[in-house]
Structures are given as C-alpha cells and as structure tokens.
Task: structure prediction
Amino acid sequence: MGEHPVVSKTGKALSAEDIAANFEDLHPPLNAEQVSVEASRCLFCHDAPCVAACPTSIDIPKFIRQIATGNLAGSARTILSANIMGGTCARACPTEILCEQKCVLNTGEHDPIEIGALQRHAVDHQIAKGGPHPFARAPKTGKSIAVIGAGPAGLTCAHALAVQGHTVEIFEARQKPGGLNEYGLAAYKMAEDFAAREVDFILKVGGITLHYNQALGRDIAFADLQTRFDAVFMGIGLGRPRKLGLAGENLGGVMDALQFIEDIRQADDPAQMDPGENVVVIGGGNTAIDAAIQAKRLGARSVTLVYRRGPTQMGATQWEQDLAAINGVTMMHWAKPERLIGEDVVHTVHFERTCLQDGNLVGTGDHFTLLADRVYTAIGQELYDQGLASLRCESGKIMVDEAGHTSLPGVFAGGDCIASGEDLTVQAVEDGKVAAAGIHTYLGEQNG
Ligand SMILES: Cc1cc2nc3c(=O)[nH]c(=O)nc-3n(C[C@H](O)[C@H](O)[C@H](O)COP(=O)(O)OP(=O)(O)OC[C@H]3O[C@@H](n4cnc5c(N)ncnc54)[C@H](O)[C@@H]3O)c2cc1C
Ligand code: SF4
Result:
C-alpha cells in the first residue's frame, strides 16, 4: 500500500483487510535487482557529504561498495560499528534532511541514492541470518555500569560498554525494551516486530542484564545506583506529554497523541480500534503528523491537523507534510485552540487564528470551530524529572559536556533527555555512543 493508503471519505468503515494493508511497511524492502541497480549508481565520493550529514557518521560509500561487491556481512558490520541501531534508523531516519539530502546525485535531475533502503538491506540480512554476534567483547574489566532506560540511547550505550568488556545492568520502567522504537514510531515505519528483534540482536553481544518495570524515582533510587555501580548512564527520554492547559481538555475523546500511537503499536489487531469519525490533531511535529496519518489509515472520515504557526515552522519535514496530504489529512496553519466543548465527550473545538506581530505569535481576533469526536494533542513532551537528584538541568533538558558527562561525577546522559540536536533516533544512538566512550575514559581515569 505504501504512501497511498485506502482512506474513508464517506464515513463508511474500512475493511479489516484494508486496515491491515494500510499498516504494512511504508517502504517495503528493495529486491535483489533493485539493490544491485541502486548500489551501482553510487559514485563512492571521497570526503562524501552524505557521511558528514549522518549524525552517526556511517561510512556510506564503504558499505554501499561492500553491497555492490556481494559482501553483505562486511556491509552490515560497517554500518553497525557506527550505528548499532542501523536497522531502525534505515526505516525511521528522515533521510530527506540527512544523508540523502546531501547525496551529490540529488540535483533535481537525478534522485539521490536510496541510502536508507540499502542500509536496511544489509542490516536486515545480518539480523535475519542469526549466528554469532558480529562484535566480540573485550576481556572483562570488572567495572559495572547502570543504564537507566532501554530506548535507543540506553541500548546503544549499553552495547558499546559491553563490547569494551564492562558489565551493564539496564533498568527500564516499562514492560518492554526499545523506548519509542517500540511504543512511538509509526506502525507503518516499524512494521511487524522489528523493534523487538533488533533489541534481541543487540543484547546477544553478552554482558548486559535488562531489568523491566524498574523506574528510577519509583523502584530505584539514584543514590543506590551511585553506590552500587562505577558509573551511571541516563537515557530516559522525555516521558511527560505537555498539556494544552485549556477548558475541556479532560473530556472523553481527548487524548495525548503519543498514547493513541502507542495503542496502535501495541494492538493485536488495529482494525479493532475505533479512530473516531471527525478527528482533530493539535500540533506540528512528528507526533502530530503520525497520529493524523494513522487515524486516517484506521478509517476516520475527516482528520484535520491544526498548527499555530506556518508550514515552514513545523517540526515535521516537508516530506512528512506531503505524506499527510497524500493520506487525506487536511492541514490548517496559523490557528491555536481556545477551548474544547462537549457534555461528557468532546464535540467541538474552538480556535482563534494567529499571526506574527513584531516576531511574536498573537491571536488575530478571528475565531472558528471544528466538529470533533476525537482530539489528539501533540504539543511536545518534557522531561519527567522525578528521581533525578541534583542533576543540573536547563530548559527542561539534562546538561552534559561534550563527552556526555552530567554535573555529577560518573553520571552520564544522552538521547532526548539532553539538548544535543534534533530529537531523532539516530541522534539518540550517537549520544549513547559518545557517552559510552566518555564512561570508558572516565573509568580508565579512576583506575589511574
Ligand atoms: C510519535 C513519535 C514519532 C517519532 N518518529 C520518529 C521518526 O520517524 N524518526 C526518528 O528518527 N525519530 C522519531 N522520533 C524521535 C525518536 O523516537 C526519539 O528521538 C528517540 O526514541 C529518543 O531515544 P531515547 O533513548 O533518548 O528515548 P526514548 O526512546 O524515549 O527511551 C527512553 C526509555 O527510558 C525509559 N524510562 C523513562 N523514564 C524512566 C525512569 N525513570 N526509569 C527507568 N526507565 C525510564 C522509557 O520507558 C524508555 O524505554 C519520534 C518520536 C515520537 C514521540
Ligand atoms: S543512520 Fe540515518 S542518516 Fe545515517 S546513513 Fe543511515 S539512514 Fe542516513
């Protein structure tokens, strides 16, 4: 079904088959012939700009050359040595603003190399074939590290530390590992059980124990971790969705968009979910777009995404905005919600149009309403700071130096909970890598 799903324009329910097809892989894997054609287009640039545009600096020309010469295992190793979550990133990276945007073939006349799709081909082959883990562990160092959170940052950090010979214990608040790879990425980007299979692959390196249902601040105390372990890594993401702070927010039918996306990801059969008939999504980032598209793909009759600023200020990329339009989502810009109206369940949302005045966003005094039996709010997440002891935070993020070291000795952090760049999976992986190197150096200094 890809980028063009079956959508309901009349309110007539979609069939279970239509919905199942709507949630298949957005970009199915390339076949052998497509891989061969795509790999042979690469110019193998020296000082390739695509490498500089990848936050994890994967040696892209090298891994594509390895594919072209039939060395798939070598290609996967090249990718995974820079990015152990190369499988998820191949599916989820906004390549149109990262590696593929900088491809020298991306001239308008030619399409860029499909770097993400080639990366997926090599990594999926490695994970599917099983066998020994491609990275051997160094001899045991006797040092142990606590990692808080089994999302992309925590898992990457744990893997890199385990490879160095350290012993790692991960404490994860939820019942499953993977963080937003498991609960947040859109179902059509992370089809089937890839998130879980990737975690199994990562843990196969050995030396990592994962404890579930163990939340820092609820089940474990920061001071205990500092006593029991030689170092601590915090990869807790941004756990608390922001509230609108408006009247009617607690009505039935009003829901955090991330919860809606999570419900779809965790559903045995998404076709059993009721997406609502008239859906309004409030927000302008990834989460808003993903919730709007998935509501449409579940069969909602009308889905309107309302954002308080213009299209160029949206957190979602142009490609994602185009995808929403292709999926039948109506986009409305320059409007902010004022209140939500209903008896027990929401039926109308009141908005005021907005504009910029001397650089500030202000209401214009023009108002309008939208009918809605479902409202998904997606105005961002913030740091859930329970149990963070005296860690220095600024603007809702944990402060770290260039090695990922926080204000407390031996405590490192990475991923969405720090201010390192875009909140993307690939950035969380890079942060986990940087912090693992920082922890390794720190532990060496403690010995000396
Ligand atoms: C809806 C949505 C869609 C997205 N789509 C994309 C996309 O298409 N492409 C892309 O690149 N990025 C996307 N992102 C961003 C990407 O998912 C994040 O940048 C990435 O997951 C951050 O990784 P992390 O490890 O820092 O945090 P998380 O993935 O949030 O993982 C944090 C982990 O820590 C655990 N935890 C939290 N608090 C505690 C505690 N107190 N004790 C123990 N454990 C705790 C959590 O349960 C979780 O498992 C999306 C984000 C959202 C919300
Ligand atoms: S990790 Fe993402 S940005 Fe880096 S090369 Fe792969 S697809 Fe591109």
